[in-house]
Specification:
The complex is a heterodimer. Chain A is an alpha/beta fold. Chain A is built from eleven helices and nine strands. In chain B, strands 3-2-4-5-7-6-13 form a seven-stranded mixed sheet, with helices on both faces. Classes of the chains: A alpha/beta, B alpha/beta.
Chain lengths: 255, 363
Amino acid sequence: METEVMTNGLELVYEKPDTLKDVPFHYCPGCGHSVVHRVLMEAVKELGIQEETIGVAPVGCSVFAYHYMNIDMQEAAHGRASAVATGIKRVLPHRYVFSYQGDGDLAAIGTAETIHTVNRGENILMVFINNGIYGMTGGQMAPTSLVGQITSTSPYGRKPAEVGYPLKITDLIAQLPGALFVTRQAVHTPNAVRKLKKAVLKSFEYQKQKRGTCFIEVVSNCPSGWKMLPKDTIAYLEEQMFPYYPLGDLKVPKD
Amino acid sequence: MEQKNNNDDVRLMKGNEALAEAAIRAGMDAYFGYPITPQSEILEYFEREIPNRHGVVLQAESEVASINMIYGAAGAGARVMTSSSSPGISLMQEGLSYIASAQLPCLVVNVTRGGPGLGTIQPSQGDYFQAVKGGGHGDYHLIVLAPSSVQEMADHVFEGFRLAEKYRNPAMILSDGALGQMMEKVVLPKEGSLPKTEKPWATTGKTKDRNANVITSLFIQPEKMEQININLQAKYAELQKEVRFEKFSCDDAEVLLVAFGLSARVCQKAVDLAREKGIKAGLLRPITLFPFPTEELRKISEKVDFMLVVEMNAGQMVEDVKLSTMGRCPVHFKGRMGGMIPSPEEVFAEVEAILEKQSISFK
């Protein structure tokens, strides 16, 4: 009703889906998390699966994902979201289950859970936000931080000889027979957001068919952690992140 | 649920297998576990039985994964269980802290072995502190049951699920390698005799008539986190009414042995040896280790000359016995460690030695 008043009778072309709670996001200006949250909940709304969807929140900036997503959710320990999602899916096999994790969570402390969840081909969607840094704890080096990237724990730049190369965990995931659909997306332009939405919709459709794990990496930004203006993070994504983490599908089901 | 026609309710079984069979009969919805000696028969039993009966069984990639699968499945409203032995239980402590804070009912079985470290696969009670005092980070308690027979390995599964669901709290069966491996006669509980409980808080999918359910242990404002702690402590205080213990020959006892689990079986025999020699000995066996039979021990402490706590560790429950008796009577300790089991003769010799010392000091 409020929306009607605000539009003054003009055609409504864009609104907040009721699968998102009516509260402001706490994320930093320009951060990709809120866009990904919205895309996920738009997909849940469009598919009409709000009553059948259960999400798992991580530890990291998106620890409070359940403050925004208006669906039943569980908050997992650091790294364990895919194990928690496994537990939910195994006892509620007809529900849609997704996990949502950052790079430290999914690709460092939770690597074993990540690999084995996909290797079992759990019928869940795993959403992986890769912004190459630990945002919540204040900008430390992540497993996905780029070579030379300056962070609070790599103040002289990431040195592969000491700490290894940035981990392309999504490429590893794509090798596993349990993985059905593996894609790398972004949210830095409206077109990228539309592509991510398509990938999310497809993943929920696949989940219904119980054919294996769907894995979506979103190469995102962290203006606060990268110590950049939000608009400058777009250039950094395009010039630094995407060459190392190229966007596109890594694995699509044969059918 | 298919009701099995059980003419085989009375069986000769290993403790681990009796426990597993009882869990299926208790309507367990899901089990997640990882192999470790001396409890692997539990996972093996489920992998063999569950596909032909009911429920979910999954061999996880680690105990860390198991306990987090338990978190997810318990949060989704299922009756869930995991099991392991000491080193694996250590790996679960993070998850148990989260489960206790999120107030999820579940059952965790520790078929304890000797430690510390990789230790030995022989029976031990060295995980008493870990089980009873919390084990992970933060102020919390598990409900802890200590079986001392194969029969109780089965019975405590029902009791564990019942208490866990009644109090929305993780429960632990603190067993040991001997109880897990030994075979005894067991009368198995009837299938379907443990009713399902309502879990309106579970994440089963948000329906239109309610707000979204959230399972979490994160309460970032300290005022809120303190209130959560106050609620937990109130629950633990309420749990006191669930205290269970067993007494042998306590009515006229001048010497009280206190022991749980396997060492209580040893002490029962030691009481017989003492009585044969005219020593008025008795035994108190705590069945719940948390809540602890503090009040009963306080009462007995006013009647006996001394207590002797016997454990298969370096002295853990003895601290709780001392806190319960508050110096009203001397409390002695006899322990074996690292997977060794004390003999009844050894315990009786300790009783005699204490009596001897007392008579010298009286002279």
